[in-house]
Amino acid sequence: MRKTPVKSEISGKVWKIEAQVGDRVSAEDTILILESMKMEIPVLAPCSGVVSEIRVAESDAVSEGQLVAVIDA
């Protein structure tokens, strides 16, 4: 099984986590939503698979390029 990292494309705050560990996701499904400059920015699954790790919690600050989740593809 290939582990695919899911990274934040921007700096912001985790507003809401949409997927949980064990959830099956398709490419482009929303994993979590970031809030940055009063805008909501979804972090999307880069591939289909099963969410194996969520590395952040709601209200956490994240940096651009930070690993936020892992998908087993």
Name the descriptors.
73 residues, mainly beta, four-stranded antiparallel sheet, 0% helix
Describe the structure.
This protein has strands at 3-7, 12-17, 24-25, 30-36, 39-44, 49-54, 61-62, 67-72. The protein contains no helices and 8 strands. With 73 residues, the protein is mostly beta strands. The mean pLDDT is 97.
Provide the residue-averaged pLDDT.
Answer: 97
Q: Helix/strand/pairing class, anyone? A: mainly beta
Give the topology string: H per helix, E per strand.
EEEEEEEE
Shape: elongated
Q: What is the gyration radius calculated from CA atoms?
A: 11 Å
Spatial order of the strands in the main sheet?
A: 1-8-6-3
The major pleated sheet works out as: 4 strands, antiparallel
Unreliable stretches (pLDDT < 50, length at least 5) are none
Number of helices: 0
Would you report the number of β strands? 8
Approximately how much beta-strand content do the residues carry?
A: over 45%
**Percent range for helical residues?**
under 10%
Topology (SSEs and partners):
Elements: E1 3-7, E2 12-17, E3 24-25, E4 30-36, E5 39-44, E6 49-54, E7 61-62, E8 67-72
Antiparallel strand pairs: 1-8, 2-4, 2-7, 3-6, 4-5, 6-8
Brief overview:
The chain is mainly beta and 73 residues long. Helix content is 0%, strand content 55%. The protein has no helices and 8 strands.
